Amino acid sequence: MFKSSPAVAAGLLFLAGCATTSTPPVAVEAPVSRVQQAQAQKAAALPQQKIFKRKVAIGRFSNETRYGRTFLTDASSDPLGKQASDMLATKLVGSNKFLVFERQDLAKITSEQQRNGAAASDLVGVDALILGSVTEFGRSTTGKAGFLSSTKIQTARAKVEVRLADARTGHVFFTASGTGEASTESGEVAGYGSKADYDATLNDRAIAAAISDVQTALMNKLEERRWRTDILKSDGRSVFISGGARQGVVVGDTFAVMREGEKVKSAQSGFEITLPGTQVATVKVVSLFGDAENNEGAVAELVSGSVPKSGGAYFITEAGK
Fold this sequence. Notes:
Blueprint: H1 6-18, H2 34-45, E1 54-63, H3 79-95, E2 98-101, H4 106-115, E3 128-145, E4 149-166, E5 172-189, E6 192-193, H5 201-222, E7 228-234, E8 238-242, E9 254-259, E10 263-265, E11 272-274, E12 278-289, E13 297-305, E14 314-318
């Protein structure tokens, strides 16, 4: 049996130490340019499903609580109501699910239109007016005191009520309420720790939370509506429709072209009711155009059926729904 000498063993160890090992190359991703990042963020902001964007305006938002009211405050000076109104408008615009129009400061817009030579008729009418108020608002301070320690908790609570009214008929078709709460806590041990003074930001945070809560209800109501749009123009084979990427329309979508049903006034409810429509054609989106919500649209090609050049009594909706 072969026995290795110490010299042979040392030689083998030396050779092993001199042996080289290959390290697999590490894949390095190419840096993403700012343009690509902007494009990715823009694509992520677009809706993933068809969205019917109702045109809304905040007609009135008031403070109906005793908070912030004095004998010297009239209806035109309502800081809490204006704050809630501005917060709601910001969140509605940021949700990307509504087309929001100004109404509360409309006089300023009209004045600016006159300076620019625009007519008052250029203003777009809305589908619904948002009417709301802050119905509850209050603050409380609680805490615990021990032999060497104490805690203090400041809490602000708010509640808002909103309703959506049809701008054409005045019919209130949806109501919702939202609540919000914000708090801060401080404590001391043996005289050391934080001391909390009156925190005015709690008011803002509580109202913001209530507005966010009621916004969720508005979003859920909106999603119940079936998406539809109108025909801008038709030349036989090509159909130009209103609405594009910001309403969830993508190239390749297939839509049904519907003829409006007859409008009949109901003696029972007093409302004008549209009878079910009839599908007359199918179109497929081939391209999109426009760079903003107020000028975007899509170009579709006729797949089957026929579309008249005058699209007044026709509309577009998702096929098979």
